[in-house]
Each structure stands twice: as structure tokens, then as C-alpha cells.
């Protein structure tokens, strides 16, 4: 892959006329504000992120506010965004910044990469956008632009291909207007050089785009080699209701939905009454089956079979710190997995727990 001429000037000229300049994180571009946006935007669309970002910044306006906040409060602001390890790592990174860096971001890319949850491209984006450092990024949008522009014949996730694309990204990175160029490359991939239906006629790079020259620009970037179909797992979720409260379980700090409050679960083939009475120390008075639904993760499908159990609670369950009774409003204020929040928000009996 041989670099071409006049790349960055064309991208910047396009950005001056058509780039996005009014997103919330583009105002007052401090390293903290840019960092939060970059983490939220991983695996998530801009339109989805905007309201989350605004609420997050209102509650945690600086790194000190984020560092001292309880993890549950941070996760509650993340509920619905998915990939919750992002939020847990962000909370840990904030505490490290306060403890080790007096609340300031390190001055070098290597220093920023030492923070939990921040890799090479994210570190470069933070420093480039907030401090105008000449550091190249290679996020999904930039990979797509470069892979299509050069008609890269291999999947960008392959080690050799990715290394070559890093070289291109660094070659094209200008010495000035670095932050604007970084934003311009993100915008180009997000608004014109999209996965499907790219708007090639509006692209500033159309004249010498190798992908467009093939007549099938959407053939690039090449797809990741296919894996087997996603496996399907099944779980039963128990909506245990006692008086005006629902029982929730704190999940382990790592793994799926790590650190979130969730509904107790039992295996697909377990008897839910027996499991509830023996494991959760309640007396079941009535059971109502709720509608099953599927929640999809990146690597498997989870079929959720929820049931409502009206119970007489035992005080013994409170001795186990991972279980706790909450009112409906208290529960909805916690960090909850998206499917659990859906159950609690939409189920008629839960709506009456006010």
C-alpha cells in the first residue's frame, strides 16, 4: 500500500464545509470530555450516545466527580449502552488519574495507554482532539476509509494488514490542524464512506479511490472470515415480588453484566419454585409465566424466560449481600442490564409497584 498525494488537505477542506462541529463533546474539548465521548462511541452510534453523554457529564462534570462516585451510580448512567466493561474501566481510570496524576491526563500516548480501557487509537484520539497532538488514530471509521481508498485485499483485523494500515494512518496525519483532521476522518467514515450505500459522489477522495475504481467500493474493507453461527443459551429470570418490592442480585464484578444489579436466574431445566424456595429462602404463593424474548450479545444469543413469583420474603436472604429488595423506582435507578430494565419497565405488575 503506497501512500498517495494531497490526502490530508482534501480531507480537511471537506471537513471545513461539511464536517460535524456541534456535537456535545466538540464543545470545550478537554481531555476528560473527549475521553468520555470516545469510550461511549465505541460500538455505539452517535445518535444513541448523545443523551447518555449529556446526562453523564451533568452528573460527572470532571474526573474528580467520576472518581469519587460509587460504581453503582456510574453503571446506572451506563445502563442500556452495553459493553459494561467500558464503564467499569472508565471508573478505574478516573480513580487512577486522581490518585497518580492529580486529575490531569498524561502528556504522552504511552502514558494514556496505561489507563484501564484505553488503547493506542483511543489514546491518540484523546490527545489529538484535545491537545492538537500529531497522533494517528485507526478506529473502525478510519479503517474503512483507508481500506476502501487503497482497495486493501485482506481483512483489516489481520495483524500484517493492520500494521500496514497504521503506517498509512501515520503517514497521512498532518503536522497541524491535527485535532480537526482526526475528527474529519471519523466524520468521513461515519457520514460518507459508510459500510453500505457510500456517498462516493460527495467524497473528497473519489478521484483516486482504488475501491471506487473497481466499481464495487462496498467490497472493501474485506470481511472478517466467517465463524460458525452464534450459539444460543437459555436462562430463566425470576421476578420475585414481595409486598411492594422486587428482589435483585448483584452480579460478579467481571463477566457478562459485571457489577450490575440483575434478576435472579436459574438454569433452563430447573424447577423455579423449588429453586426460589431453597436458594432464595422465600415461600412462593403464586407463579405467572411472562413472555419470553431473545437478547443478543456479540458472541451468543440469550433466550430469556421470565416468570413472576409472588412470595413471602424471608429475612435470611438479606444476610447474603449480593441479594437485596428494592422498590420499583429504586430498582430502575440502578445500573441494570438492558433486558432486565425492559422487564421491570414494561411488566404490568412491576408498574404497580409504586
From TrEMBL:
What's noted on cofactor binding? Binds 1 [4Fe-4S] cluster.
Catalytic EC class: hydrolase
Looking up CDD domains in the UniProt record yields:
ENDO3c, NUDIX_DNA_Glycosylase_C-MutY
Instruction: Give the reactions, separated by semicolons, that this protein catalyses.
Output: Hydrolyzes free adenine bases from 7,8-dihydro-8-oxoguanine:adenine mismatched double-stranded DNA, leaving an apurinic site
The cofactors named for this UniProt entry are:
[4Fe-4S] cluster
Q: Which residues form the HhH-GPD domain?
A: 40-191
Q: Which EC number(s) does the record attach to this protein?
A: 3.2.2.31
**Keyword list, A-Z:** 4Fe-4S, DNA damage, DNA repair, Glycosidase, Hydrolase, Iron, Iron-sulfur, Metal-binding
Gene3D superfamilies associated with the record: Helix-hairpin-Helix base-excision DNA repair enzymes (C-terminal), Hypothetical protein, domain 2, Nucleoside Triphosphate Pyrophosphohydrolase
Reading the lineage from the top rank, the first entry is Bacteria
Keyword DNA repair among UniProt keywords: yes
Family statement drawn from the similarity comment of this UniProt entry: Belongs to the Nth/MutY family.
Task of the protein: Adenine glycosylase active on G-A mispairs. MutY also corrects error-prone DNA synthesis past GO lesions which are due to the oxidatively damaged form of guanine: 7,8-dihydro-8-oxoguanine (8-oxo-dGTP).
Looking up NCBIfam families in the UniProt record yields: mutY (TIGR01084), PRK10880.1 (NF008132)
Q: Tell me which PANTHER family the record gives.
A: ADENINE DNA GLYCOSYLASE (PTHR42944:SF1)
**What's this protein's name?**
Adenine DNA glycosylase
Organism of provenance: Marinomonas ostreistagni
Organism lineage? Bacteria, Pseudomonadati, Pseudomonadota, Gammaproteobacteria, Oceanospirillales
Amino acid at each position: 500500500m503506497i501512500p498517495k498525494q494531497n490526502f490530508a488537505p482534501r480531507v480537511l477542506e471537506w471537513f471545513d464545509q461539511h464536517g460535524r462541529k456541534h456535537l456535545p463533546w466538540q464543545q470545550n474539548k478537554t481531555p476528560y470530555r473527549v475521553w468520555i465521548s470516545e469510550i461511549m462511541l465505541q460500538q455505539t452510534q452517535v445518535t444513541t450516545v448523545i443523551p447518555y453523554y449529556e446526562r453523564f457529564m451533568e452528573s460527572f462534570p470532571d474526573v474528580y466527580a467520576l472518581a469519587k462516585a460509587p460504581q453503582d451510580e456510574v453503571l446506572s448512567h451506563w445502563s442500556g449502552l452495553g459493553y459494561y466493561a467500558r464503564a467499569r474501566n472508565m471508573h478505574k481510570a478516573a480513580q487512577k488519574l486522581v490518585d497518580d496524576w492529580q486529575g490531569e491526563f498524561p502528556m504522552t500516548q504511552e502514558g494514556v495507554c496505561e489507563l484501564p480501557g484505553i488503547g493506542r487509537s483511543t489514546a491518540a484520539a484523546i490527545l489529538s482532539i484535545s491537545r492538537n497532538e500529531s497522533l494517528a488514530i485507526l478506529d473502525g471509521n478510519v479503517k474503512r476509509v483507508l481500506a476502501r481508498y487503497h482497495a486493501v485485499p485482506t481483512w483489516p483485523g489481520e495483524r500484517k494488514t493492520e500494521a500496514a494500515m497504521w503506517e498509512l494512518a501515520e503517514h497521512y496525519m498532518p503536522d497541524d490542524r491535527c485535532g480537526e483532521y482526526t475528527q474529519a476522518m471519523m466524520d468521513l467514515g461515519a457520514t460518507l464512506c459508510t459500510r453500505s450505500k457510500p456517498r462516493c459522489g460527495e467524497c473528497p477522495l473519489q478521484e483516486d479511490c482504488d475501491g471506487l475504481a473497481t466499481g464495487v467500493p462496498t467490497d472493501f474493507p474485506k470481511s472478517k472470515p466467517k465463524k460458525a453461527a452464534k450459539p444460543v443459551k437459555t436462562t430463566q429470570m425470576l421476578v420475585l415480588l414481595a409486598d411492594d418490592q422486587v428482589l435483585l442480585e448483584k452480579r460478579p464484578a467481571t463477566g457478562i453484566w459485571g457489577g450490575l444489579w440483575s434478576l435472579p436466574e436459574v438454569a433452563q431445566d430447573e424447577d423455579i419454585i423449588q429453586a426460589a424456595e431453597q436458594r432464595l429462602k422465600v415461600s412462593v404463593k403464586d407463579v405467572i409465566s411472562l413472555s419470553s424474548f431473545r437478547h443478543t450479545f456479540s458472541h451468543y444469543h440469550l433466550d430469556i424466560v421470565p416468570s413472576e413469583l409472588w412470595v413471602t420474603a424471608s429475612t435470611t436472604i438479606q444476610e447474603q449481600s449480593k441479594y437485596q429488595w428494592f422498590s420499583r423506582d429504586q430498582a430502575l435507578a440502578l445500573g441494570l442490564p438492558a433486558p432486565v430494565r425492559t422487564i421491570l419497565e414494561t411488566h404490568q405488575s412491576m408498574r404497580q409497584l409504586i
